[in-house]
Write a structure and sequence with these properties.
By secondary structure, this protein is α+β, with helices and mostly antiparallel strands. Helix content is 19%, strand content 18%. It has helices at residues 13-23, 51-55, 68-86, 91-96, 190-195; strands spanning 40-41, 47-48, 100-107, 111-115, 131-134, 143-150, 170-174, 199-203, 206-210. The strands form three sheets. The chain has a five-stranded antiparallel sheet with strand order 3-4-5-6-9. It has a two-stranded antiparallel ribbon with strand order 1-2.
Length: 249
């Protein structure tokens, strides 16, 4: 796959959402997940609706075996990804390099996401993730993984093989400073977001987490959307209504 040249600039979350909305052609009805007998929930117990509920269902299927050539490519990609992560071992290292927190806090299973400093590539490149993921938001919080993002209407080829399950979010409402005003993947509407003076995204682009940092490998797989080893400071998954650990914002 040909890679675009990395872009070294402070990436704006709202600009990303606006650009993605011009590319993504899925209708609003696609954001409504099919009814199931067992609701899909995050680790904190919050019920997920919309496209994420559909996308993460693929993770319940066993990984498909890879041939030797594909395994070699994937191994090299994961080494490249890990090398990027280890350049920024703490939040202090990330912020010194121009990264900043998005979402407003830390969520169990997904951590705290920092974007903006490393040169995001609009074509998938394991050496240029959109976000660095940390186990907290204090200066000494350690890096635990990466997040990649694609603005296409379909998931990108991404990592070698079929086992990197990309997902989207729906009903995202961001306030000033890119803080989340309402929990994503619920029944938030554009009108409700506008009343709160937020910026609304019906459906985001595609994203995947890569748990490539030694000691933070996800027991659900390197590309799982949640890592159950990533907990709140008290060792639980208890969060506020937004889905963030208490005191993490």
């Amino acid at each position: 796959m040909a890679f675009a040249q990395p872009m070294s600039f402070a990436f704006s979350t709202k600009a990303l959402f606006v650009a993605a909305s011009k590319v993504i052609t899925a209708s609003k009805t696609a954001a409504v997940s099919k009814a199931t007998s067992t609701p899909v929930t995050d680790l904190n117990g919050h019920v997920i609706v919309g496209v994420k509920a559909q996308d993460v269902a693929a993770e319940s299927l066993p990984d498909k075996p890879l041939d030797r050539a594909t395994r070699a490519v994937l191994a090299a990609q994961l080494v490249a990804a890990r090398a990027v992560a280890m350049k920024y071992p703490t939040v202090a290292d990330a912020t010194a390099a121009g990264y900043y927190l998005v979402g407003g806090g830390f969520g169990p299973g997904s951590g705290a996401h920092y974007i903006g400093g490393g040169g995001y590539s609009f074509n998938f490149d394991p050496s240029h993730p959109l976000a660095l993921i940390y186990d907290g938001i204090s200066p000494t919080s350690p890096i635990i993984g990466l997040m990649y993002y694609s603005m296409g209407s379909t998931p990108p080829e991404g990592f070698a093989g079929p086992n990197d399950h990309w997902h989207r979010h729906s009903g995202v409402c961001l306030g000033n400073g890119s803080d989340v005003l309402f929990p994503p993947d619920t029944d938030v509407t554009a009108r409700k977001c506008a009343i709160a003076k937020g910026s609304f995204m019906a459906i985001t682009g595609w994203m995947v987490h890569a748990w490539v940092v030694p000691g933070w490998e996800s027991p659900k797989g390197v590309f799982s959307h949640e890592n159950p080893d990533v907990t709140c400071a008290d060792g639980t998954f208890h969060t506020n209504a937004i889905g963030q650990c208490q005191g993490s914002s």
